Amino acid sequence: MRVVCPLSATGATGHKRRMTDSIKLPSGDWPVLQPGWVWLCGAGPGDPGLLTLHGLNALRQADVIVHDTLPPGVLDWAPQAERIASGKRGGRPSPKQRDISQQLVELARAGKRVLRLKGGDPFVFGRGGEEAQTLVQQGVPIRIVPGISAGIGGLAYAGIPATHRDVNQSVTFVTGHDPSGRATPLNWQAISNGSEVIVIYMGMRHIAQIAAELRAAGRPGDEPVAVVTAASLPEQRVLETTLARVADDILAAELQPPAIICVGRAALLRRALDWQAMASGTEPRDTDPLGRGRPAEQA
Ligand code: SAH
């Protein structure tokens, strides 16, 4: 087991540039958030720099922002907007999905410019589709602003490519539990056979069961696994382990959600590509973790 919490005081890249001016959008025609509209927008996995320009454009115009639990920073870019927290906070129960969707409808009908801001991408395990559907059914006009999903961008912050030509020609994104909290009833045999790399969202609660299912489906116990918690945030931690050990190692390391779990040899690439450690002056542990010599030449 290897657990690393690599971010130095100088931050994710080791070098920081202080922006004193408010961030300006590049000149050009940007969409206008009209009164009575709802924009469903992804904020990325955590680092405010991973917000898109369309996201910033939305923040600038919103009258009200209904947001998931987000790291501080992003909302500061919308000082004019009323903020309504909809995520789970401090152990308090989160509002029901139906209530959130209905609140969006009511805010829009009250003539507000509404921004629904969600972690990652709104359409990836984020219930954005459900909210959008309710809005459409009730005649509220919408725009979707995609975001960087934790299963891709969060892994990248740990130096793990979701795909790598020498490792995988497919990647499967799964959720570890369903809305009721029960382990997702997935066809693990099919997933295991069909995908060299499996990226698990919301996997912490049922990781022991998931790992057992994957092993029963034929994945080896020594298969590399990486668990990235609070990816892209200053408190990011990365556990490097194996399928046989992952559940015990998560407990031993006292890792807490949110976590993205990567099963497969792509996780090994972190040994070469841990760019945050390198930015802090650490040499790569292994420049050839797949044992392939030079990276495959482009065909
Ligand atoms: N729409 C989001 C996913 C929402 S589901 C997206 O596209 O990323 C919530 C799950 O996402 C968490 O349980 C965790 O598995 C993952 N996640 C979100 N942010 C994360 C982060 N910063 N670090 C690690 N995992 C994260």
Give structural notes.
With 299 residues, this protein is α/β, with parallel strands linked by helices. The chain has 2 domains: 38-145, Cobalt-precorrin-4 Transmethylase, domain 1, CATH 3.40.1010; 151-279, Tetrapyrrole methylase, C-terminal domain (Methyltransferase, Cobalt-precorrin-4 Transmethylase, Domain 2), CATH 3.30.950. 24% of the residues lie in helices and 17% in strands. The protein is built from 9 helices and 11 strands. It has helices spanning 53-61, 97-109, 128-137, 150-156, 188-194, 207-216, 246-253, 270-273, 275-279, and strands at 2-4, 38-42, 64-67, 82-85, 114-118, 142-145, 171-175, 197-201, 224-229, 237-242, 259-263. Helix 2 (97-109) crosses helix 3. The longest helix is centred in the middle third of the chain and has 13 residues, at 97-109. It is globular. The chain starts with a strand and ends in a 20-residue tail after the last helix. S-adenosyl-L-homocysteine binds next to helix 4, strand 9 and strand 11.
Series of H and E elements: EEHEEHEHEHEHEHEEHEHH
CATH topology of the largest domain: Methyltransferase, Cobalt-precorrin-4 Transmethylase, Domain 2
Span between N and C termini?
Answer: 36 Å
What average pLDDT do the residues reach? 91
Would you state the CATH class of the largest domain? Alpha Beta
- Count all strands and give the number: 11
Biggest β-sheet: strands ordered side by side in the sheet: 1-10-9-11-8-7
Largest sheet, strands/sense/barrel? 6 strands, mixed
Within CATH, the superfamily of the largest domain carries the name Tetrapyrrole methylase, C-terminal domain
Q: Low-confidence segments, ≥5 residues, pLDDT <50? A: 8-12
Q: Tell me the quaternary state.
A: single chain
The number of helical runs is: 9
Shape: globular
CATH architecture of the largest domain: 2-Layer Sandwich
